[in-house]
Amino acid sequence: MLLKKNIPWTYILGKIKWEITAVALYAIAFGLWHEDLNLHHITIPLSIPAIIGTIISLLLAFRSNQAYDRWWEARIIWGAIVNDSRTLIRQLQAFINDPEFSVDVSRITENFTKRQMFWNYSLGQMLRGQDPLKNADQYLSREDLKFVRNHMHVPNALLMLHNRDLKYMLEEGLLNPFQQVEIDRTITRLCDAMGKCERIKNTVFPTTYSLYINFALYLFIVLLPFGLTEHLGSILVLLVILISASFLLVEKMAIHLQDPFENKATDTPMTTLARNIEKDLREMIRDYEYVKANANQTKVVKDNFYML
Amino acid sequence: MLLKKNIPWTYILGKIKWEITAVALYAIAFGLWHEDLNLHHITIPLSIPAIIGTIISLLLAFRSNQAYDRWWEARIIWGAIVNDSRTLIRQLQAFINDPEFSVDVSRITENFTKRQMFWNYSLGQMLRGQDPLKNADQYLSREDLKFVRNHMHVPNALLMLHNRDLKYMLEEGLLNPFQQVEIDRTITRLCDAMGKCERIKNTVFPTTYSLYINFALYLFIVLLPFGLTEHLGSILVLLVILISASFLLVEKMAIHLQDPFENKATDTPMTTLARNIEKDLREMIRDYEYVKANANQTKVVKDNFYML
Amino acid sequence: MLLKKNIPWTYILGKIKWEITAVALYAIAFGLWHEDLNLHHITIPLSIPAIIGTIISLLLAFRSNQAYDRWWEARIIWGAIVNDSRTLIRQLQAFINDPEFSVDVSRITENFTKRQMFWNYSLGQMLRGQDPLKNADQYLSREDLKFVRNHMHVPNALLMLHNRDLKYMLEEGLLNPFQQVEIDRTITRLCDAMGKCERIKNTVFPTTYSLYINFALYLFIVLLPFGLTEHLGSILVLLVILISASFLLVEKMAIHLQDPFENKATDTPMTTLARNIEKDLREMIRDYEYVKANANQTKVVKDNFYML
Amino acid sequence: MLLKKNIPWTYILGKIKWEITAVALYAIAFGLWHEDLNLHHITIPLSIPAIIGTIISLLLAFRSNQAYDRWWEARIIWGAIVNDSRTLIRQLQAFINDPEFSVDVSRITENFTKRQMFWNYSLGQMLRGQDPLKNADQYLSREDLKFVRNHMHVPNALLMLHNRDLKYMLEEGLLNPFQQVEIDRTITRLCDAMGKCERIKNTVFPTTYSLYINFALYLFIVLLPFGLTEHLGSILVLLVILISASFLLVEKMAIHLQDPFENKATDTPMTTLARNIEKDLREMIRDYEYVKANANQTKVVKDNFYML
Amino acid sequence: MLLKKNIPWTYILGKIKWEITAVALYAIAFGLWHEDLNLHHITIPLSIPAIIGTIISLLLAFRSNQAYDRWWEARIIWGAIVNDSRTLIRQLQAFINDPEFSVDVSRITENFTKRQMFWNYSLGQMLRGQDPLKNADQYLSREDLKFVRNHMHVPNALLMLHNRDLKYMLEEGLLNPFQQVEIDRTITRLCDAMGKCERIKNTVFPTTYSLYINFALYLFIVLLPFGLTEHLGSILVLLVILISASFLLVEKMAIHLQDPFENKATDTPMTTLARNIEKDLREMIRDYEYVKANANQTKVVKDNFYML
């Protein structure tokens, strides 16, 4: 749903265009001048590039796995945020003791729910390094907004406000002590999810691995033509480019997957997920009109936005 | 139990028939015309396809593992749904305080249990993109059905109804506060399982990996005949086809495993699992007749339906 | 403790005797007639079988890992059953409020403990497709036995009886509400373990993988002699058999590990584990005589029964 | 901290001395007599040992990973035991309601803490197949010791005594019902850790894998000299020994890691860990003298004892 | 955020300078004297180093994965510490029953929060083998400091003080019993995180693996020139150095990752994390001035300090 199926080849090749250009220039230069430079006498048996190819494969397999794990963990965390947002509101509605359907309680519930909707947007913005208070006035009460503006860590401040409401509900007898503790646990899970996102965001994948891969890869590319001098003529250039491209593409893929919260076209679709959560929560507080009005909107978004 | 043991070869080869046809045509064309086109002089040492083969193996190993993990995770989630459905009803029966075996309580329990049975069917339908309200009238009370029709996310609405019943039971003194919270936790686990299924469903496996595998694979296939010109004559065609098929089959397998909730013959057997849950739950509310009447039915289904 | 250390070679070779016979016949036939059939002119460079060998290795590594994971998960689940059985009885004894050491309470505790002992045997029998009520009369009260006979899913019915007892204890004031909920959690974990076993039992490992492995493997075996014609004479036959055996044995191993609940000599030692749980639980309810009388018995069993 | 950094080479080579001797004898015999035995005419291309080398690598990678996982899981379990021992005593002190600092309560707490210290030693002894009651009189009260002597499963009996004390504390009003249940959960985690150790101890790693590795390994060793006859003379012997040693050492490593509770110099340092837990717990009950007196002792132990 | 993107090549090569020097000397010596020493006649086919290269790849892949897992687990643990620190203070504020905003309660909360801030610094110091009481007087009350000085395990003593405060709050009616138990659970998770760090710190990665890798690696390096004598002249030296460097760098990387708590430039950024936690917690107790004053400080630190 979140990815375009047909990725143009130009997009993919675009990712490695500088590397491929450099490889091509080297291969062409080798083809043109290796006789003049007396490189002709140097033949390296193909076993040598093959051994280096084995090392590169090992490094790329390792890299791909770790990068995929980061990407997949980011998705798992946001999946948990979806679940816990639903659970939070479901618990609130199921626990709150309001036999008279008072206006006051209904207002509290709505404020709480909207705050949770906003929490998701705000977390997404913060992780992408953008303004975490964007559109805050559409979701937060004036009082809450004033509190939050004092905080650098907006999503954390929102969770504090959740807890403030729970405390009020306990004092007013709207929740019993077990229910307060149980809803607090859901908030704790949201707090954990928030911290996990920050961990992935703030832990750079060991950069030395990239360097080692590049070191081994360019060693491989430099040696490859020396192993092919006897056999091929001008086709050598094409072969070197294509084989290099195979390796380079795998590395680029890993680089894209490993940072799932950078503000790129390929990251975790946090805005879409936050929008879906908003729809689910609005449905739960019976704001059916909003949901129906926005049913098509997502469809449009998904066709243009994400690409991996 | 859920898979036919004897899969016809035609079925398997059917999956890669277009690819194999293309490979065969290329190999035949190469065999017929490579002398005329002066390709005869171009010999590529077999080490080159071997190096590319190593890259492909790395990519396919990665792909197979991730695809299998998605497939297996889908099974784990549905296994958890089975367990939590049983636990939910077991807890309801064990906790409910009804010394007089009143008709009212018995009706509530039955409604609750049937709603849980339906939840499983409904979740399966939703994940396959089909009508989540199919057969809803057989399981839900008129009142519940009316509520659910207003919702786009049917399974989530059903969980809300579960909680509404719990709230009623607490108010009526049928449950004590700890028991309400404890049953709510089981519902939260069901909510988590639901969200996990949606995550797998909505997260497409990075499509660029498929492209890179295909890129490396067809590069391998194109180069392979050039490495065999000296040694073989007409057997070259057969060899190229068979080796290509080995690689292509592994990739197809991964593609089938990676989307466990698409409406294909090979996906997670959600309908069968929902039917088994229904049998277990009916047995728990002592509807023994239903269980015995349906004991054989599953047997029939399993022989025709799933194939992997 | 559960495996014989010295497995006879004949046992191992017995597992692949048909495959090896077929390979041997093919290799001998090739050796005898390849000159007559003019196959002599066809030489395949050994790089080709080597490339296929790489594919096979990839598939076998994947297969071995997944099969081992299933086998090990089965052991983890049964380990959890051991732990939760002990915890269940420990909690029961620690929580029950019986200052007068009444006969009635002592009878309930004993019944409860024996039912848990039987639950383990019954689950093992059910998973192996055997009678889950075998020896039930030695462990269950007449009343319980009557209830269970109405159920197709015996272990689940036993858990329901556990909960029925807890309900009774709560009503009688033998447990307080927290204690009831806490013991129910232990029962929920047992319910989860039961469902996990059923998941492994009922999810066949994707059979297409076996087919692909066999496809690649026999392709490898068929091509191997063509790569050796120049170098060897009659030793070719021996080499082909030994190398094929290396691959075939790894696959057989995976097949044996992947179904840990089939009724084979090599599956999870559920009966032994259930017997050990019985000893631990009897010790906990101070039936020391039983434990001492049965201390040696297990020793005997372990020497004859399990072999992997 | 727990391992000597400098392991003498003789220690390592000692592990494979018999295998290496056999390989050396074979290689020498081959070098001396292969001409006399007309083995000279048999040359096996090096691709054949290379293919077998790939199989062996696959098997050894699988083996190493699984063995390491067992070893690491054993450390994780004992790490959890350290944590839960501290938590148990911290909870006891924080929960117990004793405003008058009575002598009776102080005695109970001390007994409880000492019992937990002993539990760790006892579990370690049991897992190594040694006397689980060694030094019991230094830690257990006379009454407890009498109870425990009746039990074959000593650590489990100690947990029962923990629960007996909790029951007493609840009855005396020293703990409230939530606190009893909460401490019981910590005991349940200790019970789980105990069962996990027993699972690793009692589940032999599938022995057939060792056999298959040895089968492939000796096939490789036997074939290797036939691939080297042309190229080398007497250096062949050295090469065969060194390459064989590379493979054999990896397998030995796996064998040592896979059984982390056997009574070997290289197993999990359970005694040291139990001693560290004792120090932490004594510090928690303000037995500062003990801790300071024993601070250096561990240092001495660690230099001599563990080696991996 | 925590790593410099541009690592100078000199830094990386510095890590393997002794190994590379030794390799270079060997290669040069081989190049100069192999004719004089009659090593000229000894040619080893390149398949032999290639087989050893496969073993090394297997060992390095295993090593890299395990080392990365340790490094990543360390980050996960510290991520959990961040989350649980926030949760602890959020719970304290949300649970504490103080309608009159008394000075006494406010002082307790502040002391508690500062103690938690210090706990993080103290744990980091302890893991690095440095003074765990550094700057203690800035965070702890005089009374607390006196208590802690008696303890060798400072972070554990701090958790005991947390629990002492909870006990006081329960006695004073500031917390209800559920809330006490719930906050204790958060403290238990902190205790677990602390123990997990100690486990990683105290469990040395099996040193024999390093030895085996070095054994295989130097065997590979020694044999490599014998496989290249025919083909290359003086370029042999360069090739041997570059290929050796590829392998050696991967191993060095693993060595750096495997010990995430040693006091090196590349370890887990515990001080930075503790500082971030301090900012979050101060914001939670409305010490906004501190946060704003220190906003830039971290920025400066991050540019100079961590490098991987």
Provide a descriptive summary of the structure in words.
The structure is a homopentamer. Helix content of chain A is about 75%, strand content about 0%. Chain A has helices spanning about 10-15, 15-35, 45-95, 105-125, 135-140, 140-150, 155-170, 175-200, 205-230, 235-260, 270-285, 290-295, 295-305. Mean pLDDT of chain A is about 85; it is low at about 300-308. Chain A is an all-alpha fold and about 300 residues long. Chain A has 13 helices and no strands. Chain A has one domain (about 10-305). Chains A and E meet through helix 3, helix 7, helix 8 and helix 9 of A and helix 3, helix 8, helix 10, helix 11 and helix 12 of E. Chains A, B, C, D, E: Pfam families: Bestrophin_2. Chains A, B, C, D, E: Keywords: Cell membrane, Ion transport, Membrane, Transmembrane, Transmembrane helix, Transport. Chains A, B, C, D, E: It is a multi-pass membrane protein. Chains A, B, C, D, E: Its main location: membrane. Chains A, B, C, D, E: This is Bestrophin family protein.
List the SSEs and their pairings.
Five copies of one chain form a homopentamer.
Chain A: H1 9-15, H2 17-33, H3 47-95, H4 103-127, H5 136-139, H6 142-149, H7 154-172, H8 177-202, H9 207-228, H10 235-258, H11 270-284, H12 288-293, H13 295-304
